Amino acid sequence: MDSLLNALASGLSLGALYAVMALGFVVIYRATGVLNFAHGAFLLVGVYVASVVSESHGYLVGVVAGLLTGALVAVVAETVFLRNSRTHDHVTLTILTLGLNLLVVTEVSRRIGTETLPLRDPIGNDVVEIGAITMPTVRLIALVVAVLAITVFLLLFRFTSWGLAMRVSNQDGEVAALMGVRLSVVSWTSWAIGGALAVLSGLFLASFPTPGVTPALADTAFRAFPAAVIGGLGSVGGALVGGVMLGMVEAFAATYEGSLGGWAHNLSGISAWVLLLVVLLLRPQGLFSAKQVQRV
Amino acid sequence: MKSFVKAVAPALALGLAVSACSSKADDSSGGGVGADGVKTGAGVTKDSITLAALVPLSGPIGGLGQDGVAGVKLYFDKVNADGGVCDRTIAIEARDNKYNSQETMTQYTGLSGDVAAVANLSPGTDAITLESRLKKDGLAVMAGSYDPLLLAVHQAFMPGTPYDVEAVNGISHLVDEGTLAKGDTIGVIAYPNGIGEAVTKGVDGAAEHFGLKVEHTKIDSTATDATAQVNTLKRAGAKVIVMGTAGGPTVSAASVAAASGYDVTILATNLLSQGDVQGAAKEAIVDHVLLTSNSAPFSSDAPAVQELLAAWEKQADGRPITAPVAAGYLMAGVLHKALQQACDDGDLTPQSITDSMAKVGKIETDGLGVDLDYSTPGAAPSLASFILKPDPAAEGGAVIVTGPEESDAAAAYAESQGYVK
Amino acid sequence: MSRSRVLVGALLVVLLIAPYYLDGFWLQLGALAMAAGVAAIGLTLLVGVAGQISLAHAVFVGIGAYGYIVLASDSSDLAWGLGWPPALAALGGIGLAALGGLVLSPLSGRVNGLYLAVVTIGLVFIWQHVLQEVGGISGGYVGRSVPELDVLGVNLGDTEPWVVAQVPFGAAEKLWWLGLLVLVVAYVTARNVVRGRPGIALAMVKESEIGASALGIDVRRGRAAAFFLAALYAGAAGVLVALTTQFVTPQGFGFQLSTDYLVMIIIGGLGSVRGAVAGAVFVTALPRVLGQYADRLPFLSQVGEGGIDANVMSVFIYCALLIVVIMFARGGLDRALGLLAGPRRRPAPDRAPEPVLAEVA
Amino acid sequence: MVEPILQAEGLTVRFGGVVALDDVSFAVAPGSIHAVIGPNGAGKSTCFNAMTGLYPLAAGTVRMSGERLDRVPRHRIVRRGVARTFQNLVLPDALTVADVLRLGRHHRTRAGLLATALALPAARRERRTDDDVVRSVAEILGLEGHLDDPVGVLPYGLRKKTEIARALCAEPEVLLLDEPVAGMNDAESRALGERIRECREQFGLTVLLVEHDMELVMSLSDHVTVLQSGRVIADDRPERIQQDPVVIAAYLGADPAEVRDGREEVVSRG
């Protein structure tokens, strides 16, 4: 029972972080139709800058610097590389982000070298105990911050002209243009938000109970891919549900795989992908995206 | 189609005629005797000996190879300054294997004709991949891994004690100091790869020897959060957790144990960096972690360690020294001994250098690492380990508790595994 | 006789006699490039022609490679094998990859676009998990060595070297020829498919599912067929890769390899068979050649000095070229080759895609 | 009236809450040129798409020579002898005109992956037959000089013709043309109208077309169905449609219900 509750709590906080990351994918996808493979790069470069800046200016300044860096790098990716491309094919541009990712990760990895860089967060390895649940304080804060970030995002999405533009631009560029929305503004702001969200989740993923900033952090972005897709790439709500589902599945797999035995004993690493495979075979457009109808 | 054939046929005939005078027709590359009477082979000219370094140089663990090669070069710079080997300077050709054994193979093929021996600072089983080629080319590989499977490759040389024996030494130490007693449970958190499987095997062996129970868990090799595994082992009542992983999960496990008030000793092979030990988890690490190691920490006052630190300081523009630097330095030292032996025998061919590894007998590392002995092919070069304690204040982040020592349990285990011949 | 035919003829002749002159490094590079070419041809049929992006190509290359090994090897205490004649095992490896493609093809039939991209990433991770778990077959994390190929008693490995025009022919030289043969077959068949009934049907499917079905094309079946065909080519490439590297490991067939294949066909020009081959040569050769001549490059630091060395630089160049080709060079290497072969036809204009997708409740 | 070759009965299509087609029925006589007209948004293209299986029917049936067409999967419809063109061109730009026309032959050919890859005799024989059809259709529409050009580089008018030619290559019994002359000038559309008529004669086709160009519709068609707001408001010979006050009002924007009373008067008087 205790382990069940702990798995739930751990799955929920991990899921919240995946949701934040998945939200980044969805925002970028809605605005520009590109699946951003450079998410891991944004995350890594932001968290790296946060670590370096926090050494001299303290944790909070470091966090702000990291978030801004993530947003900035994302904006550069959109305005310099994607927008100036002569092709507009989304698949091809998606591959371009793969190239960007490798470029940035290679350089940041080179700078980090073999070290593990600390983030110097003031919370350290405190834990909170609620009944039978023991949970790292950082993960609890992550849960709160993730919920806050998602709420702020949803408010922006629902009630601002930017959000309105986001909602229509994906569906119909002409309508958006008629509404006086500048698509270029929508797309770079979306990338900025996506980049910042990547770093936000990265900041928590590099804190307790994981050791700190290492190049391998870039790979965690991959783990959030299934979250974004399970819900439906274009669906904001889907990203949230997908993220939480994924966190839960991973936490439960990690908790109980020992008792499964055989092939399942190391299942947590691929559980998300198996879930994705099953979901997409049943609903090829994800759980929450409406069926896509092609017009002729 | 016909016109196509018409175009190709004469050209082909011409091509075949020309090919008769291919330079490959008379295959006389490599081999010979220099003016100084030393027999030479691949990678050796009258004034240089070239060694290959097949290591990861880019990507997430590229830093490991970069620092490792820096260590190898640091050592041979000293050798070259003293006149080299056989009046020849040592040069290093480094290639990126992208931490992928198949890529190691490709790079090896590109280099094998031009090098006299290979250093491979890659934590995989590259030497097994290369085995048949090494045999054919006669080349020796200094392996960067302590995976016991490498012992079966007679052309490969690991610079220390295999992972499983090291785990036995660590558990033996914990039994000696009273942390573990008969009937206690040990937990294992292991990657599903070389280090994980070897440590698992070692723990099982030690458990049998000391009458302990074992609880196994696995962790994905890309994961760094060991919360679920630690919780599982806590429920199982494990008094000691042995890590068959890199540094990340070790730090995570220590943090989780500290946070949840789990009184456990975490035994890991020393893959922690200074940043790990001095980071947010430093108290947790100091309280819970005990390390086993094949090499001394930089806080050691052994002369070889001090010499290395001094040499590094002179050359590195303030870059901090890391464990891979020391590993590379140590490997270079071993290779140097073999080269010297081959030189003394008047034969610098690859096979002769390989054979020299056995001839040099016991290699004293002057406290830099465990002493090594390659004289019996297939046997472990060492069964001893350092036991270290993490210490954020110490240089390199750890201090020596004991060692290097070979436990009785390790000797018995090695005997049972056929590591002693 | 057209200029392009003369050029292709000359190129074939050069490639046929090349093993007489090249050393081990170049022979292996060539064999790997030709294997990559076969795989890239398969992928461009799926991605470029049918418009279905897959990142699982490495899985099928891996199935081909491991399939050959398991079928051709004798059982040992390390790993299980069937001990088939190697030539049969090679066909079997290709067959297993194709079978894998067939089993997974409903995925491509049902799932579209970037969704398929992500779910195929999942296939790579699941595949690697399986390889780890079935150590008795795959050799686990260590991998397995590859038995030599033997076709009807003719040895294509090092055990029985040939002497051709006074030049000794070992495995590397023989595999160069084998690779060339397979590549030519792959090239010709793929060209036939692209220009024939299935190819134009898939081009229509890529343009519009609805338009295609109005013409009587079964969209799902077409996409599934393209997936199957891509897996078949991948399997052939896998056997070649295994024979060339002589040892296979799970990391050799991971996500990086899949992205490499995608990069090949993009640099080559999506949908172009000759472009895929050119892209394969380029992507295979670039990092290795840069590494080989690293010490002759100026302005780079040496390995271990903490600066940017040739190996890191080769990654940068690889990324930069990929980005630049995607950004500016419409049509990729295919277009460059087209110019080389003389003017044939004007390239199709690159239209911005119309917003054809709408969400209908 | 002779037995209709194509018959829509009670077609109803809903998108969410919107009723796009409401109980639409009409019949197409074999060998006729039948036009569906109506103001913008009347549901003409929706009607076409519903009849060819692209949109799900909420109610109603479509029959081809008496057999249900609405239960046939959409990629099988062309095999029942119904070929169509699209309002917006649906042409893969990189293909040549000849390839696009061959696409029209897809359902009549068999060559699979293996036969095509290895260029087996069966595949080559099929290809030759296809090419004969492709060439003759191209000649009728004046495309014979462009067979080797990629469609993407052709001017709009030729691309439009290519699309019609592709549908003709399917050798259908019924040809559905969705705004065949949209975007053409008067001379071009008159010429194309002639071609359509010729095709009908030559291949014994039945043609159902949606068109805005009133002049073309009136001169070309034998029968006209008028849609407004998803309903049929008139269905008659063109010369009668031209004088129908309901239709005139619809095009001028009046409510058909109001005018209907007036028409009944007209009819009863006539």
Automatic annotation (TrEMBL), chain A:
GO terms for molecular function: transmembrane transporter activity. It is a multi-pass membrane protein. InterPro entries: ABC_transp_permease (IPR001851), BCAA_transport_permease (IPR052157). It comes from the Bacteria. The keyword rRNA-binding does not apply. It holds the Pfam family BPD_transp_2. It is found in: Cell membrane. Its main location: membrane. One of its GO terms (cellular component) is plasma membrane. Keywords: Amino-acid transport, Cell membrane, Membrane, Transmembrane, Transmembrane helix, Transport. One of its GO terms (biological process) is amino acid transport. The keyword Coiled coil does not apply. Belongs to the binding-protein-dependent transport system permease family. LivHM subfamily. This is High-affinity branched-chain amino acid transport system permease protein LivH. It comes from Nocardioides simplex. The lineage of its organism: Bacteria, Bacillati, Actinomycetota, Actinomycetes, Propionibacteriales.
From TrEMBL, chain B:
Gene3D superfamilies: 3.40.50.2300. PANTHER family: BLR6548 PROTEIN. The keyword Signal applies. Residues 48-377 form the Leucine-binding protein domain. It holds the Pfam family Peripla_BP_6. Belongs to the leucine-binding protein family. Keywords: Signal. InterPro entries: Leu-bd (IPR028081), Peripla_BP_I (IPR028082). This is ABC transporter substrate-binding protein. The keyword DNA-binding does not apply. PROSITE patterns: PROKAR_LIPOPROTEIN (PS51257).
From TrEMBL, chain D:
Keywords: ATP-binding, Nucleotide-binding, Transport. The keyword Transport applies. GO terms for molecular function: ATP binding; ATP hydrolysis activity. This is Branched-chain amino acid transport ATP-binding protein LivG. It comes from Nocardioides simplex (Arthrobacter simplex). The keyword Ligase does not apply. Pfam families: ABC_tran, BCA_ABC_TP_C. GO terms for cellular component: plasma membrane. InterPro entries: AAA+_ATPase, ABC_AA/LPS_Transport, ABC_transporter-like_ATP-bd, BCA_ABC_TP_C, P-loop_NTPase.
